[in-house]
Write a structure and sequence with these properties.
The complex is a heterodimer of chains A (about 110) and B (about 110).
Chain A lengths: L2 E3 L3 E5 L4 E8 L6 E6 L6 E6 L3 E5 L2 E6 L4 E6 L8 E8 L5 E3 L3 E6 L1
Parallel strand pairs in A: 2-11
Antiparallel strand pairs in A: 1-3, 3-8, 4-5, 4-9, 6-7, 7-8, 9-10, 9-11
Chain B lengths: L3 E4 L2 E4 L5 E7 L6 E6 L6 E8 L2 E4 L6 E3 L9 E3 L8 E8 L8 E3 L3 E5 L1
Parallel strand pairs in B: 2-11
Antiparallel strand pairs in B: 1-3, 3-8, 4-5, 4-9, 5-6, 7-8, 9-10, 9-11
Classes of the chains: A mainly beta (about 110), B mainly beta (about 110).
Chain lengths: ~110, ~110
């Protein structure tokens, strides 16, 4: 079966750095996506990786290792507004998105 | 501004009643999707449509129905056959036609069955 694993919840301190991991087992791979979702709101797109390596976008970076079936989202200089759930999704061989359950990130002052 | 809208934001229904959730987009996109989100679970695909007058079942279509009579509209009906309808429902369309991954989502409808 297809499976995406993320930690359920993480806590970090304002101004610090946090890394949210995602491991996947899917039938084929055509890209990995990270979304941010604030409580009660819709997800919004953060990043896309299809090749191995690091993609940097401001305070957020995303890394992919296809051989290990692994990705992480790195958030730097954490702000209170970064408190949200972070969803990992993989596009499989049928070009359908498979979603992880999300990681709830709690930022403490 | 182009976008995707859903209404209502909150919806309550009595057990045994059908209810229709609205989804409208003015992006002129062909593809539209309906997802369901439950606490502690990933988004699950209910139905999707790649073109007007055509739609396909997703992973959890049982108890739901859709129509796609107009390009801009993709309403979802939650029928009385859906055993656990209480959930957050999200409608989406790809940012770029033909590409599934990066999607615009509507604000969502939270359905509660009383």
């Amino acid at each position: 079966g297809q499976n995406i694993d993320q930690p359920t919840e993480m806590t970090a301190t304002e101004g610090a750095i946090v890394q949210i991991n995602c491991t996947y087992q899917t039938s084929g791979f055509n890209g990995l996506f990270w979304y941010q979702q604030h409580a009660g709101e819709a997800p919004t797109f953060l990043s896309y990786n299809v090749l191995d390596g690091l993609e940097e976008k401001g305070r957020f970076s995303s890394f992919l290792s296809r051989s290990k079936g692994y990705s992480y989202l790195l958030l730097k200089e954490l702000q209170m507004k970064d408190s949200a759930s972070y969803l990992c999704a993989v596009k499989d061989s049928n070009y359908q998105l498979i979603w992880g359950a999300g990681t709830k990130l709690i930022i403490k002052p | 501004d182009g976008g995707i809208t859903q209404s209502p934001k909150y919806l309550f229904r009595k057990e045994g009643q059908n209810v229709t959730l609205s989804c409208e987009q003015n992006l002129n996109h062909d593809a539209m999707y309906w997802y369901r989100q439950d606490p502690g679970q990933g988004l699950r695909l209910i139905y999707y449509s790649q073109i007007v007058n055509d739609f396909q079942k997703g992973d959890i279509a049982e108890g739901y129905s859709v129509s796609r009579e107009k390009k801009e509209s993709f309403p979802l009906t939650v029928t009385s056959a859906q055993k656990n309808p209480t959930a957050f429902y999200l409608c989406a369309t790809p940012k770029r036609e033909g590409e599934v991954g990066e999607q615009f989502f509507g604000p969502g409808t939270r359905l509660t069955v009383l």
